[in-house]
């Protein structure tokens, strides 16, 4: 099984990327799946004016990103909350693809600098994900005061509690990934 983590913030001084690093480390340390981070800050995609399937000459970078999404058995999106919404960079890549997202098991992790852990971003993002055909797993991972909860390398301040929460969150994603695999056999 292979999991792709989309780290969606492209801001300078971003903190949600710490959560993406944590999940990569957690999944690797516990040998739950192979895992990689697709960091939208590294991709530096332009604003797309069309879906991939209608592009005449997509760049190698777009095709590489698409291939990584296609190869993933499951996806974790780590997103900050910006004024109750999610980053434009995330909307940009969600809208780039279509069939590639269909019935792809997805776990959503939200983060904020405040006390609510990105709870407000959930409403708009879940509607978009449902509309495009993702299979949203029935687990959330909300991180309040993210800047105080993880260091720059993704190490949580309270590792025992964070690992306990991650176990249930990742467990739901893996269950959905395995269920999808069985449906296709």
TrEMBL record:
Gene3D superfamilies: 3.40.50.360. Residues 1-146 form the NADPH-dependent FMN reductase-like domain. GO terms for molecular function: FMN binding; oxidoreductase activity. Pfam families: FMN_red. InterPro entries: Flavoprotein-like_sf, FMN_Rdtase-like_dom, NAD(P)H-dep_reductase. SUPFAM superfamilies: Flavoproteins (SSF52218). GO terms for cellular component: cytosol. Coiled coil: none annotated. It comes from the Bacteria. This is Putative flavoprotein. The lineage of its organism: Bacteria, Pseudomonadati, Bacteroidota, Sphingobacteriia, Sphingobacteriales.
